[in-house]
């Protein structure tokens, strides 16, 4: 299993129902007007995130596509995307 962080835009408060067993954590973020940017410029506002543990990047992309809004999909730095060394 590989962990991915799915950062979503406004309009997607909860992960798709069919991903319930794969979601490790999901949080909504406060309004972007409350953000403080240090050392650079703010990018597009993110409304929240879902941390999922899935079998593949393809599955993470399926979950993201089902959200119906813009979702950025990123693997966690501690995760490998290549074939298992087992």
Top keywords for this entry?
12% helix; globular; alpha+beta; 1 helix; single chain
Could you characterize the architecture of this molecule?
- This protein is of the alpha+beta class.
- It has 1 helix and 4 strands, in the order βββαβ.
- It has one helix spanning 57-66, and strands spanning 2-8, 23-28, 48-54, 71-75.
- The chain has a 4-stranded antiparallel sheet, with helices on one face.
- The longest helix is centred in the C-terminal third of the chain and has 10 residues, at 57-66.
- The model has no long low-confidence stretch (mean pLDDT 84).
Topology summary:
Blueprint: E1 2-8, E2 23-28, E3 48-54, H1 57-66, E4 71-75
Antiparallel strand pairs: 1-3, 1-4, 2-3
Sketch the major β-sheet: 4 strands, antiparallel
Determine the strand fraction and express it as a percent band: 25-35%
Number of strands: 4
Work out the helicity level.
Answer: 10-25%
Quote the distance from N terminus to C terminus. Answer: 13 Å
Specify Rg, calculated over alpha carbons. Answer: 14 Å
Structural class: alpha+beta
The SSE string, one letter per element, is EEEHE
Our count of helices gives 1
Nutshell version of this structure?
This protein is an alpha+beta fold and 86 residues long. It is built from 1 helix and 4 strands; from the N terminus they run βββαβ.
